[in-house]
Protein backbone atom coordinates (compact mmCIF):
# COMPACT_ATOMS: atom_id res chain seq x y z
CA UNK A 1 0.00 0.00 0.00
CA UNK A 2 1.52 3.29 -1.09
CA UNK A 3 1.88 6.19 1.28
CA UNK A 4 0.92 9.55 -0.15
CA UNK A 5 2.65 12.76 0.85
CA UNK A 6 0.72 15.93 -0.05
CA UNK A 7 3.20 17.90 2.07
CA UNK A 8 6.47 16.25 1.00
CA UNK A 9 9.81 16.89 2.61
CA UNK A 10 12.54 18.11 0.29
CA UNK A 11 15.12 15.45 -0.53
CA UNK A 12 18.26 16.21 1.44
CA UNK A 13 21.86 15.31 0.69
CA UNK A 14 22.35 11.75 2.00
CA UNK A 15 24.08 11.58 5.35
CA UNK A 16 27.22 9.59 5.96
CA UNK A 17 26.92 5.82 5.83
CA UNK A 18 28.11 5.57 9.45
CA UNK A 19 25.07 7.60 10.53
CA UNK A 20 22.78 5.32 8.55
CA UNK A 21 24.35 2.28 10.21
CA UNK A 22 23.87 3.89 13.62
CA UNK A 23 20.22 4.47 12.77
CA UNK A 24 19.78 0.81 11.82
CA UNK A 25 21.46 -0.35 15.04
CA UNK A 26 19.14 1.85 17.07
CA UNK A 27 16.13 0.39 15.27
CA UNK A 28 17.37 -3.16 15.80
CA UNK A 29 17.71 -2.48 19.53
CA UNK A 30 14.17 -1.14 19.71
CA UNK A 31 12.85 -4.09 17.69
CA UNK A 32 14.61 -6.58 19.98
CA UNK A 33 13.24 -4.79 23.04
CA UNK A 34 9.70 -4.81 21.71
CA UNK A 35 9.79 -8.49 20.79
CA UNK A 36 11.32 -9.44 24.15
CA UNK A 37 8.72 -7.39 26.04
CA UNK A 38 5.87 -9.25 24.33
CA UNK A 39 7.46 -12.59 25.25
CA UNK A 40 7.88 -11.48 28.87
CA UNK A 41 4.24 -10.41 29.02
CA UNK A 42 3.05 -13.72 27.64
CA UNK A 43 5.17 -15.47 30.28
CA UNK A 44 3.55 -13.40 33.02
CA UNK A 45 6.83 -11.68 33.90
CA UNK A 46 5.56 -8.19 33.10
CA UNK A 47 2.08 -6.70 32.86
CA UNK A 48 0.09 -5.52 29.86
CA UNK A 49 2.41 -4.09 27.23
CA UNK A 50 1.79 -1.67 24.30
CA UNK A 51 3.86 -2.92 21.37
CA UNK A 52 5.43 -0.48 18.89
CA UNK A 53 6.55 -3.06 16.29
CA UNK A 54 6.87 -1.20 12.97
CA UNK A 55 7.29 2.26 14.51
CA UNK A 56 10.99 1.91 15.34
CA UNK A 57 11.98 4.08 12.38
CA UNK A 58 9.99 7.08 13.60
CA UNK A 59 11.35 6.76 17.11
CA UNK A 60 15.01 6.12 16.35
CA UNK A 61 15.17 8.63 13.50
CA UNK A 62 13.73 11.37 15.70
CA UNK A 63 16.25 10.77 18.49
CA UNK A 64 19.21 10.61 16.14
CA UNK A 65 18.13 13.77 14.33
CA UNK A 66 18.32 15.74 17.58
CA UNK A 67 21.14 16.90 19.81
CA UNK A 68 21.94 15.44 23.21
CA UNK A 69 20.58 18.45 25.10
CA UNK A 70 17.23 18.32 23.30
CA UNK A 71 14.41 16.71 25.26
CA UNK A 72 12.04 13.88 24.40
CA UNK A 73 8.41 13.68 25.54
CA UNK A 74 7.13 10.15 24.84
CA UNK A 75 3.84 8.32 25.13
CA UNK A 76 3.41 4.71 26.22
CA UNK A 77 4.13 3.75 22.60
CA UNK A 78 7.69 5.15 22.88
CA UNK A 79 8.29 3.29 26.13
CA UNK A 80 11.85 2.23 25.20
CA UNK A 81 13.05 5.44 23.64
CA UNK A 82 15.30 6.30 26.59
CA UNK A 83 17.42 3.29 25.63
CA UNK A 84 18.72 5.43 22.79
CA UNK A 85 19.91 7.92 25.43
CA UNK A 86 21.72 5.28 27.47
CA UNK A 87 19.06 3.79 29.75
CA UNK A 88 19.54 0.10 30.63
CA UNK A 89 16.87 -2.07 28.97
CA UNK A 90 15.90 -3.79 32.23
CA UNK A 91 15.09 -0.40 33.72
CA UNK A 92 12.64 0.34 30.92
CA UNK A 93 11.13 -3.15 31.14
CA UNK A 94 10.77 -2.77 34.90
CA UNK A 95 8.09 -0.14 34.36
CA UNK A 96 5.74 -2.90 33.23
CA UNK A 97 6.06 -4.99 36.36
CA UNK A 98 5.92 -2.11 38.80
CA UNK A 99 9.60 -2.21 39.70
CA UNK A 100 10.36 1.11 41.45
CA UNK A 101 13.89 1.03 40.02
CA UNK A 102 12.29 1.86 36.67
CA UNK A 103 11.74 5.40 37.94
CA UNK A 104 14.39 7.81 36.72
CA UNK A 105 15.48 11.42 36.77
CA UNK A 106 14.32 12.87 33.43
CA UNK A 107 17.34 15.20 33.34
CA UNK A 108 19.64 12.16 33.26
CA UNK A 109 18.40 11.16 29.83
CA UNK A 110 16.74 14.31 28.54
CA UNK A 111 13.55 12.28 28.43
CA UNK A 112 10.31 12.91 30.27
CA UNK A 113 8.40 9.98 31.78
CA UNK A 114 6.08 8.25 29.33
CA UNK A 115 2.55 9.65 29.34
CA UNK A 116 -0.34 7.21 29.21
CA UNK A 117 -3.19 9.80 29.08
CA UNK A 118 -3.53 10.94 25.49
CA UNK A 119 -1.88 14.25 24.54
CA UNK A 120 -1.05 15.43 28.06
CA UNK A 121 2.64 15.43 27.13
CA UNK A 122 2.09 18.08 24.42
CA UNK A 123 1.66 20.98 26.89
CA UNK A 124 4.57 19.53 28.90
CA UNK A 125 6.84 19.74 25.87
CA UNK A 126 5.71 23.25 24.97
CA UNK A 127 6.24 24.41 28.54
CA UNK A 128 9.75 22.98 28.61
CA UNK A 129 10.60 24.55 25.26
CA UNK A 130 9.22 27.90 26.37
CA UNK A 131 11.07 27.85 29.67
CA UNK A 132 14.51 26.60 28.64
CA UNK A 133 17.13 29.29 28.15
CA UNK A 134 19.43 27.69 25.56
CA UNK A 135 18.99 26.44 22.02
CA UNK A 136 17.30 23.21 23.07
CA UNK A 137 14.43 21.70 21.14
CA UNK A 138 11.59 19.60 22.52
CA UNK A 139 10.40 16.63 20.47
CA UNK A 140 6.99 15.38 21.55
CA UNK A 141 5.44 12.14 20.30
CA UNK A 142 1.73 11.43 20.00
CA UNK A 143 -0.58 9.35 17.86
CA UNK A 144 -3.43 10.14 15.53
CA UNK A 145 -5.94 9.61 18.33
CA UNK A 146 -4.26 12.30 20.44
CA UNK A 147 -5.02 14.93 17.80
CA UNK A 148 -8.67 14.68 18.87
CA UNK A 149 -7.84 15.60 22.47
CA UNK A 150 -8.08 19.06 24.02
CA UNK A 151 -4.52 18.94 25.37
CA UNK A 152 -3.23 18.59 21.82
CA UNK A 153 -5.09 21.65 20.57
CA UNK A 154 -4.19 23.78 23.59
CA UNK A 155 -0.54 22.74 23.45
CA UNK A 156 -0.09 23.27 19.71
CA UNK A 157 -1.93 26.58 19.82
CA UNK A 158 0.34 27.83 22.61
CA UNK A 159 3.41 26.56 20.75
CA UNK A 160 2.38 28.58 17.72
CA UNK A 161 1.64 31.73 19.70
CA UNK A 162 4.99 31.50 21.50
CA UNK A 163 6.94 30.31 18.46
CA UNK A 164 8.27 27.68 20.83
CA UNK A 165 11.10 25.40 19.65
CA UNK A 166 9.04 22.21 19.45
CA UNK A 167 8.93 19.36 16.95
CA UNK A 168 5.51 17.73 17.13
CA UNK A 169 5.88 14.15 15.91
CA UNK A 170 2.52 12.61 15.08
CA UNK A 171 2.72 8.86 14.52
CA UNK A 172 -0.33 8.35 12.35
CA UNK A 173 -0.66 4.57 12.47
CA UNK A 174 -4.30 4.80 11.28
CA UNK A 175 -5.87 3.39 14.46
CA UNK A 176 -6.73 4.82 17.88
CA UNK A 177 -7.26 1.41 19.49
CA UNK A 178 -10.29 0.31 17.41
CA UNK A 179 -11.19 3.73 15.96
CA UNK A 180 -9.87 4.43 12.43
CA UNK A 181 -8.71 7.90 11.44
CA UNK A 182 -11.79 8.29 9.25
CA UNK A 183 -13.92 8.27 12.42
CA UNK A 184 -11.69 10.78 14.20
CA UNK A 185 -11.60 13.75 11.83
CA UNK A 186 -12.90 15.13 8.55
CA UNK A 187 -9.46 16.54 7.73
CA UNK A 188 -7.93 14.93 4.66
CA UNK A 189 -4.56 14.84 6.44
CA UNK A 190 -3.66 15.42 10.07
CA UNK A 191 -0.78 17.66 9.02
CA UNK A 192 -3.38 20.12 7.69
CA UNK A 193 -4.15 20.97 11.31
CA UNK A 194 -0.84 22.88 11.37
CA UNK A 195 -2.38 25.58 9.15
CA UNK A 196 -4.99 26.40 11.77
CA UNK A 197 -2.30 27.15 14.31
CA UNK A 198 -0.09 29.11 11.94
CA UNK A 199 2.80 26.67 12.17
CA UNK A 200 4.83 24.69 9.67
CA UNK A 201 3.75 21.16 8.79
CA UNK A 202 5.19 18.26 6.77
CA UNK A 203 3.96 14.78 6.02
CA UNK A 204 6.45 11.95 5.65
CA UNK A 205 6.49 8.18 5.13
CA UNK A 206 6.87 6.88 8.68
CA UNK A 207 8.18 3.53 7.41
CA UNK A 208 11.12 5.34 5.78
CA UNK A 209 13.51 6.05 8.65
CA UNK A 210 15.84 8.12 6.47
CA UNK A 211 12.98 10.39 5.42
CA UNK A 212 11.81 10.79 9.03
CA UNK A 213 15.33 11.67 10.18
CA UNK A 214 15.56 14.31 7.47
CA UNK A 215 12.15 15.77 8.31
CA UNK A 216 12.88 15.99 12.04
CA UNK A 217 16.36 17.41 11.47
CA UNK A 218 14.92 20.17 9.30
CA UNK A 219 12.18 20.86 11.83
CA UNK A 220 14.72 21.06 14.67
CA UNK A 221 16.89 23.43 12.63
CA UNK A 222 13.88 25.69 12.04
CA UNK A 223 13.08 25.66 15.75
CA UNK A 224 16.65 26.54 16.71
CA UNK A 225 16.64 29.39 14.23
CA UNK A 226 13.59 30.91 15.91
CA UNK A 227 11.14 29.88 13.19
CA UNK A 228 8.81 28.12 15.61
CA UNK A 229 7.27 24.66 15.84
CA UNK A 230 6.71 22.07 13.14
CA UNK A 231 4.06 19.37 12.99
CA UNK A 232 5.56 16.24 11.43
CA UNK A 233 2.92 13.70 10.45
CA UNK A 234 4.64 10.33 10.02
CA UNK A 235 2.33 8.01 8.11
CA UNK A 236 2.56 4.34 8.96
CA UNK A 237 0.28 1.53 10.10
CA UNK A 238 -0.17 -0.15 13.46
CA UNK A 239 0.78 -3.63 12.32
CA UNK A 240 0.22 -5.30 15.69
CA UNK A 241 -2.47 -4.93 18.34
CA UNK A 242 -2.96 -1.77 20.37
CA UNK A 243 -1.49 -3.68 23.33
CA UNK A 244 -1.14 -7.25 24.49
CA UNK A 245 -4.70 -7.17 25.87
CA UNK A 246 -6.16 -6.17 22.49
CA UNK A 247 -7.52 -8.41 19.72
CA UNK A 248 -7.46 -6.34 16.50
CA UNK A 249 -9.24 -9.13 14.60
CA UNK A 250 -12.43 -7.97 16.30
CA UNK A 251 -12.44 -4.68 14.39
CA UNK A 252 -10.23 -4.98 11.28
CA UNK A 253 -9.36 -7.51 8.61
CA UNK A 254 -6.09 -9.31 9.55
CA UNK A 255 -5.06 -9.35 5.89
CA UNK A 256 -4.78 -5.56 6.02
CA UNK A 257 -2.10 -5.73 8.68
CA UNK A 258 -0.25 -8.45 6.77
CA UNK A 259 -0.23 -6.28 3.64
CA UNK A 260 1.44 -3.44 5.54
CA UNK A 261 4.02 -5.74 7.14
CA UNK A 262 6.02 -5.76 3.91
CA UNK A 263 6.68 -2.02 4.36
CA UNK A 264 8.00 -2.19 7.94
CA UNK A 265 11.03 0.07 8.51
CA UNK A 266 13.75 -2.21 9.91
CA UNK A 267 13.93 -4.57 6.94
CA UNK A 268 13.39 -1.62 4.61
CA UNK A 269 16.46 0.27 5.86
CA UNK A 270 18.51 -2.92 5.93
CA UNK A 271 17.63 -3.58 2.28
CA UNK A 272 18.62 -0.03 1.40
CA UNK A 273 22.03 -0.30 3.06
CA UNK A 274 22.69 -3.74 1.57
CA UNK A 275 21.66 -2.46 -1.85
CA UNK A 276 24.08 0.46 -1.52
CA UNK A 277 26.89 -1.91 -0.59
CA UNK A 278 27.21 -0.39 2.88
CA UNK A 279 26.07 -3.46 4.80
CA UNK A 280 26.41 -7.19 4.26
CA UNK A 281 23.83 -9.76 5.26
CA UNK A 282 26.37 -11.31 7.61
CA UNK A 283 26.86 -7.94 9.34
CA UNK A 284 23.11 -7.51 9.61
CA UNK A 285 22.74 -10.95 11.22
CA UNK A 286 25.54 -10.12 13.64
CA UNK A 287 24.00 -6.84 14.72
CA UNK A 288 20.57 -8.43 15.09
CA UNK A 289 22.04 -11.23 17.21
CA UNK A 290 23.82 -8.67 19.40
CA UNK A 291 20.58 -6.73 19.95
CA UNK A 292 18.68 -9.89 20.94
CA UNK A 293 21.48 -10.95 23.28
CA UNK A 294 21.42 -7.53 24.95
CA UNK A 295 17.70 -7.88 25.64
CA UNK A 296 17.92 -11.49 26.77
CA UNK A 297 20.54 -10.52 29.34
CA UNK A 298 18.49 -7.50 30.43
CA UNK A 299 15.43 -9.69 30.99
CA UNK A 300 17.42 -12.06 33.18
CA UNK A 301 18.83 -9.17 35.23
CA UNK A 302 15.32 -7.85 35.74
CA UNK A 303 14.03 -11.22 36.94
CA UNK A 304 17.03 -11.78 39.20
CA UNK A 305 16.60 -8.38 40.83
CA UNK A 306 12.92 -8.96 41.54
CA UNK A 307 13.55 -12.39 43.06
CA UNK A 308 16.44 -11.21 45.21
CA UNK A 309 14.55 -8.32 46.75
CA UNK A 310 10.84 -9.09 46.99
CA UNK A 311 10.31 -6.19 49.37
CA UNK A 312 10.53 -3.86 46.39
CA UNK A 313 7.03 -5.03 45.45
CA UNK A 314 5.49 -3.29 48.44
CA UNK A 315 7.99 -0.60 49.38
CA UNK A 316 6.37 2.84 49.46
CA UNK A 317 2.93 1.17 49.22
CA UNK A 318 2.12 -0.08 52.72
CA UNK A 319 3.32 1.61 55.90
CA UNK A 320 2.59 -1.57 57.88
CA UNK A 321 2.45 -4.75 55.74
CA UNK A 322 -0.03 -7.31 57.13
CA UNK A 323 1.27 -10.41 58.90
CA UNK A 324 0.74 -12.77 55.96
CA UNK A 325 2.57 -10.48 53.55
CA UNK A 326 5.48 -10.03 55.97
CA UNK A 327 5.77 -13.79 56.23
CA UNK A 328 5.82 -14.19 52.45
CA UNK A 329 8.52 -11.52 52.11
CA UNK A 330 10.60 -13.34 54.71
CA UNK A 331 10.17 -16.65 52.92
CA UNK A 332 8.26 -18.39 55.70
CA UNK A 333 4.73 -19.57 56.32
CA UNK A 334 2.40 -17.39 58.39
Structural commentary:
- The protein has 334 residues and is of the alpha/beta class.
- It has a single domain (17-329), classed as Thiamin diphosphate (ThDP)-binding fold, Pyr/PP domains (Rossmann fold, 3-Layer(aba) Sandwich).
- 43% of the residues lie in helices and 10% in strands.
- The chain has twelve helices and seven strands.
- The chain has helices at residues 17-42, 56-65, 89-94, 106-109, 121-131, 150-162, 193-196, 209-224, 254-261, 265-275, 281-308, 323-329, and strands spanning 71-73, 138-143, 166-172, 175-176, 179-180, 200-205, 230-235.
- The strands form two sheets. Strands 1-2-3-7-6 form a five-stranded parallel beta sheet, sandwiched between helices. The chain has a two-stranded antiparallel sheet with strand order 4-5.
- α1 (17-42) runs antiparallel to α10, α1 packs across α11 (281-308) and α5 (121-131) packs parallel to α6.
- The longest helix is centred in the C-terminal third of the chain and has 28 residues, at 281-308.
- It starts with 16 loop residues before the first helix and ends in a 5-residue tail after the last helix.
- Residues 1-14 have low confidence and may be disordered.
